[in-house]
Amino acid sequence: MKGHIKINRELCKGCYLCLHACKKGHIVSSKEYNAKGYRPVRFNNEGDQRCTGCALCAITCPEIAIEVYRE
Amino acid sequence: MTKKVFGKPKCLKENVFHYCAGCGHSIVHRLVAEVIDELDIRGITIGVPPAGCAVLAYNYFDIDMIEAQHGRGPAMATGIKRTLPDRVVFSYQGDGDLAAIGIAESFHAANRGENITVIFINNAVYGMTGGQMAPTTLLGQRTTTSPSGRDAVKEGYPIRISEILSSLPGTTFIERCTVNSPPNIIKAKKAIKKAFQYQIDGLGFSMIEVLSPCPTNWKMTPIAACKWIDEVMSKEFPLGIIKDIKSSDKGGKSHVG
Q1: Is the Cβ of B22 closer than 8 Å to some Cβ of chain A?
Q2: Cβ(A60)–Cβ(B181) under 8 Å?
Q3: pLDDT for the residue numbered B83
Q4: Which one of B10, B34, B110, B154 is most buried, counting C-beta atoms within 10 A?
């Protein structure tokens, strides 16, 4: 199953719970800051195992900054 | 074809949460909103937010909400439910609100078996006022008013609200859950849904206690706070169903430690 996520970088507060929840490591921290001064995470769908749209990152995100799509 | 499988629940507004990074409040807000959406009770639900970090909950929920005085959520919910018995009424309270100043209202609303649902957020400190010791603070836990750790001789023991209320015959469903990992969040949502369903079925008082991370006042990173719930806090506050009148005829099963 293929999937992808959309991260709203202005909502992200950089708690990195999603980074911990994604077992495939498709979420990484970025070096840029958002308007509030947090360092938001970004989606990095690379490597052999692609995102399946399991939504574990979105379930754990306190800010509801992640939307999940499946094909 | 791409299908959206996860997004913002319909009964949350577009406002950005004011909570700290990694706070459990916003997760529980989302779970309550998802449950209201799934049960399709948005038009008949009335919420009662507390005094505390979640005092601005009415900015986020797109349902009727009425702010209660500090700790008086269950009393206000009682009044609303008695005048409008066809509505679904829930009170959302923290541990300073429910277990300290509002213990009398909570205890007696539970004892009367009022047909309301209480969402009880237990983060073991007073969050909004700056991390002071709460009745639920663990023994040895450092807070701004117990800088050398809570001492049982001077400050007493942490109160297990769920176990106390489960001893009252008026309560129907009490479960303690946590929101520190995706599986536990899914369990917490099921528990909240069950509590709302008990109220809709007219069974009586239901309460969900949620062990919620407070990284700011625990002086931890959000991930360390989630780990701390697993390793320390859930030992003092054991997770699971504490009372369920449907699962046993003898007033519910209990695994009080």
Answers
A1: yes
A2: yes
A3: 97
A4: B110
The ipTM value here is 0.95
- Report d(CA B52, CA B94) in Å as an integer: 7
Question: Out of A11, A38, A60, whose CB is closest to B185?
Answer: A60
**Alpha carbon distance A3, B202 (integer Å):** 41
Using CA atoms, how far residue B246 sits from B189, B191, B197, B242, B253, in Å, is 19, 14, 12, 12, 9
Contacts of B125 by beta carbon, 8 Å cutoff, 6+ apart:
B95, B131, B132, B133, B134, B137, B143, B214, B217, B218
For the whole model, what pTM was predicted? 0.94
B20 has a chain A CB within 8 A of its CB: yes
- CATH of A3-70, picked from 3.40.50.300, 3.40.50.2000, 3.30.70.3270, 3.40.50.920, is 3.30.70.3270
* pLDDT for the residue numbered B251: 47
What's the pLDDT tens digit per position in B194-245? 999 999 999 999 999 999 999 999 999 999 999 999 999 999 999 999 999 9
Q: B-chain residues within 8 Å CB-CB of A66?
A: 6
Q: Answer whether A16 touches B (CB < 8 Å).
A: yes
A contacts of B223 (beta carbons < 8 Å): 15-17, 20
